[in-house]
Amino acid sequence: MESSRVVLSPLGWSALFGSLSALLIGLVTLNLLLLVIPLAVLALTATELLAFDRATRGFGPSWFHWQRFENSSEVRIDGVGSMALDLERVGPGSAYLEVFDPQPEAFEVVLGDPHLLTWWSGSAPVRLAYVYRPRQRGRFRLGPTIVVAHDPLGFAFRTTKLENRWEVLVTPALSVEQASSIPPGATGPSEAYRRRVGPGAEFRSLREYQPSDDARKIAWRRSGLEKVYVREHEEEAHPEVLLLLDTGWGMRLGIPGSEGLELAVDGATVIAGQVIGRRDRIALLSYSDRLGEFVPPQRGSDGAERMTQALGRVELVPARFDLPGALAAAREHLAAPTTIVLFSTLLGVEGAVEGAIAELRSRGHRLVALCPEVASLFPPEADPIAAQTMASALGPVEQQVEYGVNRLRAGGAAVVRYPATHVREIAADLLAWITSGGGPV
Amino acid sequence: MTDRWWAAVLVYPAPLYAGLLALDHFWTGELLFPIGFCLALGFGSLTGFGLVRRSIWVWGGRLGLVIVGLVPLAYGSFVAGDLLDLATGITLGAPFLWLEYAWRDNASPGARVLSLELTLLVGILALATISVPSTTGSAGGQFLQALETVLSNQVHGVAAVLGGTAPASMPLETTLDVTYVGLGGLAFAGVVLPWASPRTALDEPLPWSWLRRHPPTAPSRHISEELGLRPGQRQALATRTLPHPPEAMLSPGFGALLMAAVIVTGFLVLAVSAPSFALLVLVLGTVGAVVAVALVLSRRLAPLGGLSA
Q1: Are A73 and A139 in contact (CB under 8 A)?
Q2: CA proximity to A273, closest of A299, A293, A295, A292
Q3: Count of domains forming chain B
Q4: How many angstroms separate the CA of residue A142 from the nearest CA in chain B?
Q5: Are B241 and A111 a contacting pair at CB < 8 A?
């Protein structure tokens, strides 16, 4: 039968060695009192260890039946999750058992306890139940449950783990209420606001030919010898939005928990909420050196759910961000003219970026990049020397980012630099800014 | 009354008894001899009960007492009566300087046993000096000479045993004051009893902690509606298991205590009826216990244990 080994605790070690060394004192003095005391401690320790070994022989997963129930598999970051576990001993006998359900550090237990130390008599079931509040978005794993059999005097223990892992997806708090954060004037689907003359596919009207017009747009059947007409088409003023998230290694810049990627997800959540709240369509594409995930254009409450799940799953990939590759992937997945909102730190921009942007523009897409200000990703240092050290350490990083920004701007993309603390405000204003101006700045 | 005080009540009497007996025996009217003893006793008690906590005072005081106690002792024959009286008084009360380790929460069992053993050793030495015929001089000088005689006789006695001859004198072996043995047993109980309590004794050190009333940490605590839990989740929370102490008589720890008591009683009976055989049994038994424990610890039924998977 599979069994874990007996491990001496510091208490056990010190009891053994303390009594042995004290026994030496007794043997030198040959005094009965000084012999009896270490002998008693040694006898107690040794007997207890042998008894514990015998009582817990075969201790392992086969000692238990277990079942997780009433567990949350998806939790909003501003909500709570629940976890419950029933454990039952197989076979007779009593033991001093400690049950612990390991938690990610990002979870804070707010009710109940994931830890229990109790005397376990016979096959009486034990129930562990607790409620936690996530502090961070992402995919997290609970378990495996660890069970430790303690010797009642604390001299030794055995450990085993029960394979009952459970995955929890913590999603950002996206909701259609985000629409309320749209600035006045940018809310509501207004046809005048939504449509304008442009390179769209839908026919709008005819007008008289001007020398600058493309000859391919001439409506020959309606034209005569005196007047020549051209067809006017219309495009959507704010077509679909694609959130393009850089998940490369450069996005770990910042303080863990609020690094570049988390800022990006925060901003993307706000934009997604606004777009869905306005009954428009939004897509998501995460990319590092390869495609991470593509969520096709979504709308409505189902779409909101899919977007929150996808935003919850976004995670860093230890690879350099390939911007031309990401733009090419976006191009492949997009049919209608789309505003691509890129969230990236723009660290180490390489390759034919300008060409990729030009290609996008030629197909009617627009690229707007949101890039955090590097210095704002770290808390300000009060000490002048520390602040100076930090500034000189961030100098080369800032140069790299500046290089990336310049290349994007040279290619014709709009780049917005934002202070990390204001990512939500910037994101909330961004959509209105894009749509009201009729294009990127 | 805290657990610290409970343990102290059990541990203090033995060294106090031996120290006061020696003080009474050697005292010839000088003040510095009892003052030295009281200094060590008082300072040790102040630190032991946590009345003096600042480490600079604790360790500075200990160092000062050790210097005052050791320097004149090292040059005992050259030092005049008064200073020697103070130094020997401090030596007599020295166990109280480390006695607190016998009950301190953060001291390991090994440290507790050693602390108690060393304390009892000083007590046994003090009791052994009483049986040495008195000489002339101050109390400190008399105590020092008696101590020298005891140690010298003990070393010669052990050397004789090891050499296979009959020892002329074994002062420490024959120091068996019934009251002292009783008080030593009480001190031992004070050190060992915390282990008799179950595993949670780490939080509540003494076994009688279980007898206290524990405030119920009821799982039926009000679960806020705002958490938005499903009925099943609320039910699971409300019925979760709470820790509870073991049924003491069924606990393996109780069996080990009984077994240890049987071993000790057997050894005592053997030591009275056949001392040399008892010593042989003690050595063999110790080796056997160490081997048995080593076997248990080295047994590995599954590679790397339960956490290997």
Answers
A1: no
A2: A299
A3: 2
A4: 16
A5: no
B202 within domain boundaries: no
pLDDT, average across residues A211-215: 76
Helices A300-313 and A260-277, interaxial angle, to 10°?
A: 180
Q: Flag whether B33 is in a domain.
A: yes
Two structure tokens written together for A314: 């976004």
pLDDT computed for residue A125 by the predictor: 87
A88 and A64 Cβ atoms separated by less than 8 Å:
yes
Interchain contact B229–A (C-beta under 8 A) = yes
Domain that holds residue B293: 248-300
Residue B80 falls inside a structural domain: yes
Q: Which has the closest alpha carbon to A78: A39, A138, A136?
A: A136
A219/B contact by beta carbon, under 8 A: no
Lowest mean pLDDT among A164-168, A188-192, A332-336, B58-62: A188-192
CA–CA gap between residue B76 and residue B140 (Å, rounded): 9
H-helix or E-strand spanning residue A128: strand A126-134
Residue with token string 């993309």 = A413
Q: Do B301 and A1 touch (CB under 8 A)?
A: yes
B42 with B150, same domain: the answer is: yes
What count of other Cβ atoms lies within 10 Å of the Cβ of residue A221?
Answer: 6
pTM: 0.72
Label residues B289-305 b or e (16+ Cβ within 10 Å = b). Answer: beeebeebbeeeeeeeb
Q: Distance, in angstroms, between A152 CA and closest chain B CA?
A: 5
CATH number of A176-184+237-437: 3.40.50.410
Residue B224 lies in a domain: no
Mutate to test the interface with B, among A37, A45, A73 (most CBs of B within 10 A): A37
Tens digit of pLDDT for each residue in B88-144? Answer: 899 899 999 988 888 877 788 788 888 999 999 999 999 999 988 877 778 888 888
Fold of A61-171: Immunoglobulin-like (2.60.40)
Q: Are A285 and A329 in contact (CB under 8 A)?
A: yes
- The pLDDT score that the predictor gives to residue A94 is 75
Q: Is the pLDDT of residue B216 over 50?
A: no
Query: What are the pLDDT digits (tens) for A334-346?
Result: 888 889 999 999 9
One domain for residues B33 and B137: yes
Q: A107-117 pLDDT, tens per residue?
A: 999 888 898 88
Interval A6-17 mean pLDDT: 87
Q: Do both B183 and B106 map to the same domain? A: yes
Instruction: State the pLDDT confidence band at A100, using cuts at 50, 70 and 90.
Output: very high
Q: Which ipTM was obtained for this model? A: 0.74
Using the beta-carbon criterion (under 8 Å), do B256 and A47 form an inter-chain contact?
yes
CB A118 within 8 A of CB A100: no
What tens digit of pLDDT does each residue of B30-44 get? 888 899 999 999 999
Mark yes or no for CB contact B110/A6 under 8 Å. Answer: no
What span, in angstroms and rounded, lies between the C-alpha atoms of A220 and A229?
7
Interchain contact A161–B (C-beta under 8 A): yes
CB A302 within 8 A of CB A206: no
Give alpha helix (H) positions in A317-383. Answer: 323-333, 353-362
CA distance B29 to chain A (A): 32
Is A383's pLDDT higher than 60?
A: yes
* Per-domain residue ranges of chain A: 7-55, 61-171, 176-184+237-437, 197-236
CB A116 within 8 A of CB A137: no
Query: Cβ of B117 and A3 within 8 Å?
Result: no
Query: What are the beta bridge partners of residue A115?
Result: A100
Query: Which among B115, B241, B290 is the top mutation candidate for probing chain A, defined by the most A β-carbons within 10 Å of its own β-carbon?
Result: B241
